[in-house]
Design brief:
Layout lengths: L14 E2 L3 E5 L5 H7 L3 H6 L9 H18 L3 E7 L5 E8 L5 E8 L8 H15 L4 E7 L3 H9 L3 E10 L5 E10 L1
């Protein structure tokens, strides 16, 4: 549990740029979230804690651990949505939150890739972080995911050191590359 005042994500969400919106997860996201986690790239690169998600599992998470994390301010599992029709596009997660920074992770559903959703979502995550008073954001990807590295550096994240073997949020050991941005 963090030793600082909890961050109030709910007080500043939703956050939109007119194209993409980052908002709290809703029960109506469960089907699309579960379907998105079946994508091979999401399975490979998102490092999700479970191997398989059903809509029921996702709804239980939304009403349980996700709601608890948001309320306590130590975990924010959020939806990336279309700002025009609220369609679920992917997931943005803030975790390992301190008084000054947080790590983020994200994934975009396969049928929404190629629309710069990741870029928009990362820029919105930076805005959310600024509004929360954070001074830095951290991210990591694996060396086998150049698309994520490209998007991170495009929005201003800088690589921190060399790739290192480490345990990722899924519990697996991967060659991770760390990134950071000052806000």
């Amino acid at each position: 549990m963090p030793q600082h005042s909890p961050l109030s994500f709910s007080s500043i969400l939703p956050c939109s740029d007119g194209s993409i919106c980052i908002r709290t997860m809703q029960d109506s996201d469960a089907e699309a979230y579960a379907a998105g986690t079946e994508d091979a790239s999401v399975k490979r690169f998102a490092h999700l804690p479970l191997d398989h998600y059903t809509p029921e599992i996702v709804r239980d998470m939304i009403q349980g651990v996700i709601a608890e994390g948001l309320q306590a301010g130590f975990l924010a599992v959020l939806s990336i949505a279309d700002a025009n029709n609220d369609e679920f596009l992917g997931s943005m997660v803030f975790f390992d939150i301190t008084a000054t920074d947080a790590e983020i992770g994200y994934w975009v559903a396969p049928n929404h890739r190629g629309r710069k959703v990741s870029k928009h979502a990362l820029l919105l995550a930076m805005e959310i972080s600024r509004q929360l008073g954070l001074t830095h954001l951290r991210a990591r990807t694996v060396i086998d995911n150049p698309a994520s590295a490209y998007v991170l550096t495009t929005v201003g994240f800088a690589q921190q050191g060399e790739p290192t073997a480490e345990t990722v949020p899924s519990g697996k050991t991967e060659m991770s590359v760390k990134y950071q941005i000052a806000l």
